[in-house]
Amino acid sequence: MSVSHSDVLIIGGGVAGLTLALTLASRYEVTLIRPAQDDQGASRWAQGGIAAVLSPADNLDAHIQDTLIAGDGLCDEDAVRFTVENGPAAIQWLIDSGVPFTPDTSPDAPFPYHLTREGGHNARRIIHADDATGKAVVETLHHNAQQHPSITQRDNLTVVDLFANQTGECNGALAVDSDGQSHTLYAHYTVLATGGASGLFQHTTTPSPNSGEGMMMAANLGASLMNLEFQQFHPTCLYDPDGPAFLISEAVRGEGGKLLNQQGERFMPSIDARAELAPRDVVARAIDAQIQAGTLGHVWLDISHLGEEALRHHFPTILAHCASRGIDITQAPIPVVPAAHYSCGGVATDLNGATEVSHLYAIGEVAYTGLHGANRMASNSLLECLVFARSCAQNLLARPTAPPAQSLGTAPLMPSTTTTPDPAALHALRQSMRASMSQHLAIVRHQEGMAALAQQLIDLTHQLHTLDPDMTHPDSRRLLHSLKLARMSVLAAQQRHESRGLHYSPDWPEKLPGARPSRLRLADLPSLAS
């Protein structure tokens, strides 16, 4: 077993983790855990862009109001205002860092970079790098982090748990490497930037989605988890049951893409005045209804009217990827289906990313800041990553210098692996969890189905304990985290007796006045029946 010490330990190397590392490295020694699968994570696959008030024709209050409307009454207005007001400076930091945003070369351009529009926004305020913004941002920041002498990146470790000292302060994390060797990572400050929980579901928009392990690690130390029932399903993921996940950016609809049903008819104008640019929960439910009424298993998204030249300019990645899957989007519509995309809930934090656990922070999709409410508006996610990473950094930079590593206390030992569960059996359990979650806790939820799901998750947990009674194998422990989070998500949904935003139940079709965000702790989870 190896032991290491650092001032700040950041778990996760997407936009939030990289931004924090680069902002802190002027003062602190930073260890950044960036597993190889981060290259397939949500940040890299974010296509559309980043929302911020950049055009002279736009204003902060308009962005705030659009966000509050999309959040369907559950946003924290202070968090929304904080995020929006700090957005332009965060974008300028990216520009100064070298991110190659797409320029606007038109003679009367109001801003040097091209701004597009997406669902829920009433102005063009999405800055982007073609249709691969996440990739451009991650690659730029990762390159900068590699050059910084105060940032140590570890790409061979998978964190399986956090640990705290006797006073309850988080002191670091326990991890394993690719050879199965254990590592104790001491840190004065620990920051979760581990992403969301889309991997709890069968169909997702990223190839290697997280399943909420970071959220559950924080809950194990006593942190609250909020709004777990609000899982966003992106309306338009490429439909290909035999191929990998691939998101079709909301910007396609922002540039005039039309949704068509099985009969080739456009259906969104009759559902919402904003048509294809309605908030994602509205569009996803409309698509789901069309799929349930038809036999294709998908709907169509037609952008062919833009023409090949415009498509190559605006959507080169989507054009090339669809071509590689046998779809010429200049001539034919794209088959699309909703897929799990973003977790609006997560670890409760303040505006500096601080959790209820001392010395533990959370930023990015793993966190609940109050920005998104019951539904995230398009392209506010990378904005949140940037703003809260920078806010967290400023908070940590203002704190006293970290004490010597020896004062951190003693970490619990990683249990020795006495059981090696069958990998195929573990995979089967995870797939069963994902299929059950997609059946009963996706776009439309029924009380009867959620009750059945709660029992199914208990049964799967018992099966996991049978496979690995001591929970010593890292894959077992990570699956246990996911099963616990799935159970907490079901509990949150069962307790919300209304339909709001991303939570829609025909059993409770109306909105309740005075509804509030949900808050759960691990102790609220019913004990496993024997």
UniProtKB/TrEMBL annotation:
GO terms for molecular function: L-aspartate oxidase activity. Residues 7-382 form the FAD-dependent oxidoreductase 2 FAD-binding domain. It catalyses: L-aspartate + O2 = iminosuccinate + H2O2. Pathway: Cofactor biosynthesis; NAD(+) biosynthesis; iminoaspartate from L-aspartate (oxidase route): step 1/1. InterPro entries: FAD-dep_OxRdtase_2_FAD-bd, FAD/NAD-bd_sf, Fum_R/Succ_DH_flav-like_C_sf, Fum_Rdtase/Succ_DH_flav-like_C, NadB, Succ_DH/fumarate_Rdtase_cat_sf. It comes from the Bacteria. It is found in: Cytoplasm. Residues 430-511 form the Fumarate reductase/succinate dehydrogenase flavoprotein-like C-terminal domain. Pfam families: FAD_binding_2, Succ_DH_flav_C. Transmembrane segments: none annotated. Its cofactor is FAD. Keywords: FAD, Flavoprotein, Oxidoreductase, Pyridine nucleotide biosynthesis. Its EC number is 1.4.3.16. GO terms for cellular component: cytoplasm. One of its GO terms (biological process) is 'de novo' NAD+ biosynthetic process from L-aspartate. The active site is at R280. Catalyzes the oxidation of L-aspartate to iminoaspartate. Belongs to the FAD-dependent oxidoreductase 2 family. NadB subfamily. PANTHER family: L-ASPARTATE OXIDASE, L-ASPARTATE OXIDASE, CHLOROPLASTIC. This is L-aspartate oxidase. It comes from Vreelandella azerica. The gene is nadB.
